[in-house]
């Protein structure tokens, strides 16, 4: 039971990290100090997508699921609703490149807007 809960927690952390990588720049608009955390997270997330690397959370989750005696993601709320967001069906290397580019585009726009705002305040 504890391994299953731990695996579910890893999936939830994985999803939250993905959302932070994608949209964390919006939080930086309110809390500028968060850029020190978001920029490295965004660099990691983008690198994983662009170079088709394996996120270390995935093997950790799989190891915990095997320790719990599970073979797959069947059953439960976490598995049914959150896993398809993190591991969508039909995820191809080409689609991963587009997703990495989307992460860069969204965050470049947010940080450019923030930088423009900061520079206009200094004038």
Write the layout of secondary structure elements.
Layout: H1 2-30, H2 35-50, H3 57-67, H4 77-86, H5 93-122
Protein name: DUF2784 domain-containing protein
InterPro entries: DUF2784
Transmembrane segments: 9-29, 95-115
How is this structure best summarized?
This protein has helices at 2-30, 35-50, 57-67, 77-86, 93-122. With 123 residues, it is mainly alpha-helical.
Keywords:
123 residues, mainly alpha, 0% strand
Number of helices: 5
Secondary-structure content class: mainly alpha
From the spread of the alpha carbons, the general shape counts as elongated
Q: Tell me the total number of β-strands.
A: 0
Order of helices and strands: HHHHH
Supply Rg.
17 Å
Proportion in β-strands? under 5%
First CA to last CA: what distance?
59 Å
Specify the biggest β-sheet: none
Please tell me the overall pLDDT.
84
The count of domains is: 1
Helix content: over 70%
Low-pLDDT residue intervals, each spanning 5 or more residues: 73-77
């Amino acid at each position: 039971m504890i391994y299953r809960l731990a695996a579910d927690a890893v999936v939830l952390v994985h999803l939250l990290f993905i959302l932070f990588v994608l949209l964390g720049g919006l939080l930086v608009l309110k809390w500028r100090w968060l850029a020190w955390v978001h920029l490295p997270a965004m660099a990691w997330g983008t690198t994983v997508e662009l170079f088709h690397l394996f996120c270390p959370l995935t093997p950790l989750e799989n190891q915990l699921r095997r320790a719990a005696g599970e073979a797959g993601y069947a059953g439960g709320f976490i598995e049914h609703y959150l896993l398809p967001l993190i591991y969508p069906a039909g995820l191809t290397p080409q689609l991963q490149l587009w997703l990495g580019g989307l992460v860069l585009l969204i965050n470049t726009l947010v940080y450019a807007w923030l930088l423009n705002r900061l520079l206009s305040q200094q004038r």
